[in-house]
Amino acid sequence: MVWRHRAVCLEVDPELFFPLRSTDQQVEEAKAVCRRCPVMESCLQWALESGQECGVWGGLSEDERLVLRPRVPRRRARARADKAGRPASAVTGNKGAV
Fold first, then answer.
1. What pLDDT score was predicted for residue 11?
2. Which residues contact 14 (CB under 8 A, 6 or more apart)?
């Protein structure tokens, strides 16, 4: 994760990104730091793939990432199914489209 070495948040108190009580103002301040970060997209991708549930990552709040999260497991299931030569529904247990 070489991208972390270039992250702007290294220069900011980490508590900004992990508020005890999520306030709109604090979340917006954290997102402002993210918006000026050259590795924001890599950070977001890592947070989604690793299942980060708390804090602001890649410019998105917990709730905003929750909306995107279901897409990542489907990609993983599809990749596993392709490797095994099976339909993705066999890996995920879903009967519908993946």
1. 95
2. none
